[in-house]
């Protein structure tokens, strides 16, 4: 059984790595050819020819495809021409060796590309391929996830991944959303709440209703973004691809000229000139140069995807490298986007419990975000009966309790400050202090007299200050845009260290400010999450969207932060800069090796095998250097 299992794994590996499998067989046949050659066995040449054909099979297909379908030349043409040329003058072993090493380099590049695609493979594994669907008669039938329709009712058992996006159809469930949010703690979902495909049911089985088709789920969108990113080359990669055809034509023209002129210039024999021409054909090939950019960009995209960062292409990495300032929307981006009760004060401390109960009782009837803040702050308090409760829009609540009139709301509504002092001087100073910190103060009064106040604030997201600090370490300026008043905006900016603040803005103002900042700083990145941020995201040089934001923001942005982790912004900038440095290393190294090998060939200090090793060895080193990005840490 063990032998069968090993054989199965080998068979699967060969199927997945067909190109490398042929390369290995080619290498083994070359070894056999060398052994037979030492024994002057006539089978050596046929063995080398077979090794040549097997090793060069994929190179020939690539060359044929580009030449016939794309009407362009590539480096495969140079390698095949050099190997054929070497064989014509009797260097069968060298020709086969050339094809083998070239094939080895291309196989390693193909495997490295496959490794950078692991991000997609891992994402695809997150959501199950099948789902447990209720039929019309109430039975459960296992169906393909791809066949699910909006409105289908599903069962998700304990420990299973939710197969598709939908809403909960039971009273409550506990779901682990770490795959989306990165948070390790499970969250409780209630009937009607959204559940996301790929997250895990931690407790009892529950039912859900499908709200999207398979291709529109969050994970499907993420996978499409990564796939599109890997197919989108950077500017440097595009330029290299553009010059490859011209470069190959120049080499193919130069080599015959070289063979003709060298006997005249250096008094070489025609055989020596032809041999040196084949070496030139080999070492002048831009294999390493062609591989300098794409593997690096793909590795960076893959590494970032594992971190919850989706770059929408190699060109985005290029643009992110040049960012000089990052602009943040405030609400929902730097802050949580929901007010929270952060402080409370009571005129008479012994009345605290009663006032809290009265406030919760009044706020229970409202759906306003401030009402939600009170209910979240006091989840264990049970409401009490109130008399004549009125919700006065824009002001607050008025009600009677035990014959007294109570008000909850803003200052002018709650306090009767016309006739006599409604709040003491020291209490008023505390209110002014809270308001100067950007907090919203809600007053509670009885018969117009101050009883308590609650300070509410939109709390900063975890990591907001750390993000700003990391950006400053990278030499990047930070700007905050908000529709809030200047006092609130300035307090938050000071708390986390933002360099520049623009407040009292309308949604349409943000895009024009981005243009203004571009004139000051040059390249600008914008971070947002809402529909109102879409114009600014589109105007900026690089747009960051939060994964919890709107679809419009995610579609408009260049980079999506799936886990809403702001600290991934400086990571994105850092890996982009590191990728550019690594690409420049690859380009300088590959060009230097080509020049060095061409000079060495002219001086006759290298032969064809050494030329092959030097040339293809540089290609392998460039690819391995690029793969270092898969383990990048900042």
Concise summary:
By secondary structure, the protein is of the alpha+beta class.
Q: Main attributes?
A:
alpha+beta; single chain; elongated; seven-stranded mixed beta sheet; six-stranded antiparallel beta sheet; 634 residues
Structure description:
With 634 residues, the chain is an alpha+beta fold. It is built from 25 helices and 22 strands. The chain has a seven-stranded mixed beta sheet. Strands 2-1-3-9-4-7 form a six-stranded antiparallel beta sheet, with no helix packed on it. β1 and β2 form a beta hairpin. The protein is elongated, with a radius of gyration of 34 Å.
Question: What is the beta-strand fraction?
Answer: 15-25%
What's the count of strands?
A: 22
Low-confidence stretches: none
Read across the widest sheet, the strand sequence of neighbours is: 10-22-21-20-11-18-19
Characterize the largest beta sheet: strand count, sense, and whether it forms a barrel: 7 strands, mixed
Shape: elongated
Query: How many DSSP H or I helices?
Result: 25
Estimate the mean pLDDT confidence. 82
Helix percent reads 40-55%
Structural class: alpha+beta
- Based on CA atoms alone, the radius of gyration comes out at 34 Å
Distance between the termini: 46 Å
């Amino acid at each position: 059984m063990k032998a069968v299992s090993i054989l199965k794994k080998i068979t699967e590996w060969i199927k997945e790595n067909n190109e490398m499998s042929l390369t290995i067989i080619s290498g083994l046949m070359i070894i056999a050819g060398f052994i037979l050659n030492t024994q002057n066995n006539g089978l050596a040449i046929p063995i080398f020819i077979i090794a040549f054909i097997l090793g060069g099979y994929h190179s020939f297909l690539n060359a044929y495809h580009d030449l016939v379908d794309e009407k362009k030349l590539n480096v495969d043409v140079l390698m095949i021409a050099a190997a054929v040329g070497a064989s014509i003058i009797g260097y069968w072993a060298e020709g086969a060796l050339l094809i083998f090493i070239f094939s080895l380099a291309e196989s390693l590049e193909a495997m490295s590309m496959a490794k950078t695609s692991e991000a997609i493979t891992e994402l695809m594994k997150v959501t199950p391929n099948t789902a447990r669907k209720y039929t019309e008669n109430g039975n459960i039938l296992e169906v393909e996830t791809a066949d699910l329709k909006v409105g289908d009712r599903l069962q998700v058992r304990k420990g299973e991944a939710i197969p598709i996006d939908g809403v909960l159809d039971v009273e409550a469930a506990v779901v682990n959303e770490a795959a989306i949010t990165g948070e390790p703690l499970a969250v409780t979902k209630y009937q009607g709440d959204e559940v996301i495909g790929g997250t895990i049911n931690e407790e009892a089985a529950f039912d859900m209703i499908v709200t999207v088709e398979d291709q529109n789920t969050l994970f499907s969108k993420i996978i499409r973004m990564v796939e599109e990113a890997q197919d989108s080359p950077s500017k440097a990669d595009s330029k290299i691809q553009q010059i490859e055809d011209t470069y190959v034509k120049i080499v193919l023209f130069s080599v015959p000229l070289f063979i003709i002129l060298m006997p005249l210039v250096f008094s070489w024999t025609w055989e020596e000139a032809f041999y040196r021409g084949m070496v030139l054909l080999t070492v002048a090939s831009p294999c390493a140069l062609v591989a300098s950019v794409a593997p690096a960009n793909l590795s960076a995209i893959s590494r970032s995807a594992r971190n919850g960062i989706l770059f929408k292409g190699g060109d985005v990495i290029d643009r992110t490298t040049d960012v000089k300032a990052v602009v943040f929307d405030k609400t929902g981006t730097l802050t949580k986007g929901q007010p929270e009760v952060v402080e409370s004060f009571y005129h008479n401390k012994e009345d605290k419990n009663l006032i809290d109960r009265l406030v919760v009782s009044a706020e229970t009837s409202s759906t306003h975000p401030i009402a939600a803040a009170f209910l979240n702050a006091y989840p264990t308090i049970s409401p009490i009966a109130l008399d004549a409760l009125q919700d006065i829009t824009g002001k607050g609540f008025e009600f009677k309790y035990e014959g007294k009139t109570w008000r909850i709301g803003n200052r002018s509504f709650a306090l009767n400050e016309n006739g006599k002092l409604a709040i003491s001087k020291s209490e008023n100073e505390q209110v002014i202090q809270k308001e100067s910190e950007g907090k919203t103060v809600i007053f509670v009064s009885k018969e117009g007299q101050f009883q308590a106040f609650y300070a509410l604030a939109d709390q900063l997201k975890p990591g907001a200050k750390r993000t700003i600090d990391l950006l400053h370490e990278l030499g990047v300026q930070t700007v905050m845009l908000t529709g809030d008043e200047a006092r609130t905006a300035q307090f938050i900016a000071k708390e986390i260290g933002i360099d520049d603040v623009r407040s009292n803005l309308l949604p349409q103002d943000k895009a024009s400010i981005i243009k203004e900042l571009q004139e000051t700083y040059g390249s600008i990145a914008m971070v947002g999450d809402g529909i109102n941020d879409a114009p600014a995201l589109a105007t900026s040089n690089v747009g960051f969207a939060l994964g919890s934001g709107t679809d419009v923001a995610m579609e408009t942005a260049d980079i999506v932060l799936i886990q809403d982790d702001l600290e991934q912004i400086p990571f994105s900038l850092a890996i982009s800069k590191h990728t550019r440095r690594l690409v420049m290393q690859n380009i300088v190294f590959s060009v230097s090796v080509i020049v060095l090998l061409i000079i060495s060939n002219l001086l006759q200090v290298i032969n064809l095998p050494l030329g092959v090793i030097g040339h293809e060895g540089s290609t392998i080193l460039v690819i391995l250097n690029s793969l270092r990005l898969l383990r990048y840490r900042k």
